[in-house]
Amino acid sequence: MVLLVKSGGPAALPEWQALFGEVLPDVTVKGWDDADVDPLSVRYVLVWEPTQGRIAQFPNLELVLSTAAGVDHILADTALPTHLDIIRMVTEETSTRMADFVTMASYALLREMPQLVSAQREGRWDEARLGGVAKETPVAILGLGELGSVAAARLAANGFPVLGWSRTQKSLPGVACHSGEAGLDRVLAQARIVVNLLPDTAQTKDLFGAALFAKLPRGASVINAGRGAQLDTAALLAALDSGQVGAAILDVFKVEPLPQDDPLWRHPHVIVTPHVASDASRKEKARQAALNIRAHQAGAAIVHRFDRARGY
Ligand code: NAP
Questions:
Q1: Probe ligand 1: pick from 166, 178, 231, 278, max atoms within 8 Å of CB?
Q2: pLDDT digits over 117-128, tens only?
Q3: pTM of the prediction?
Q4: CATH superfamily, with its number, for domain 2-91+280-298
Q5: How far is CA 191 from CA 127, 161, 213, 220, 240, in A?
Q6: Model pLDDT for residues 257-311, shown as the tens digit of each residue
């Protein structure tokens, strides 16, 4: 029984083998491009951006485990068999680290850090830039799933008024929860900071565009920690230049790495981070993958299964 891993390249394979050796000793862990692997022996794959067409070469494959919470990088394989279960990688570490990032970014925007960093680069002593205070800075989180709900609770604990929006109505302590199109309008109208933690689906593609920005109070800020597909970059640049959006902290992009000539790199009111908002350690990932493989072997419920009908 073989588990093929495509994450971190050949250099990471010994670590994956040692980690899975502790939690799943009856499964042999091999590298993605290992020429000695019999395709019939592969039962599980743990992958980030699997090579186009490769997953379809394993007729006895039972589970596709993503190394990330999002599975867009797997669905990009147009030859992917549709009967296979795909499992998202969500661990306590993933939601904790995303809450850390969203809180850090919210404080950075509250205290006008993008503008202060620009002033530093120009050698400008911009002493009037004192920023605001958390209790007067409503933050709207779009997407109240595994990550959004934990980030919302953390922001509320830090004194930010928190609004949330999801497909189905939620009830979370300390969070003003909304759903539906009218709910989105209500949330946006009140937000000083809007955070994207939605999944990448047909409905969320380019949602962060001109229409959404126009519904925000003038000068509100944007955090994109979901997926690049959800942000219309040209619309964001126009909104930044008109002052409708005050600043943005962006972690994910349509093309990654962000191309060198992209204007976002050098925009004075934008902070770019290289898709580092949240990732669990290999140890956590191996532990979580093993739990699901064990559950699958025992015929028990698997957690964080990608729902093809919902699209996330
Ligand atoms: P999740 O558990 O699937 O939650 C998704 C949330 O979005 C749910 O609340 C869902 O509503 C809501 N939603 C989905 N479609 C919607 C729609 N059309 N309208 C309104 N709400 C909608 O996802 P997650 O694990 O929290 O992940 C969130 C995002 O973070 C994903 O895009 C993921 O790829 C990204 N991510 C980024 C990083 C990074 O480093 N930047 C790391 C990890 C994950 P319901 O509750 O009603 O279902």
A1: 166
A2: 999 999 999 999
A3: 0.96
A4: NAD(P)-binding Rossmann-like Domain (3.40.50.720)
A5: 26, 9, 11, 7, 16
A6: 999 999 999 999 999 999 999 999 999 999 999 999 999 999 999 999 999 999 9
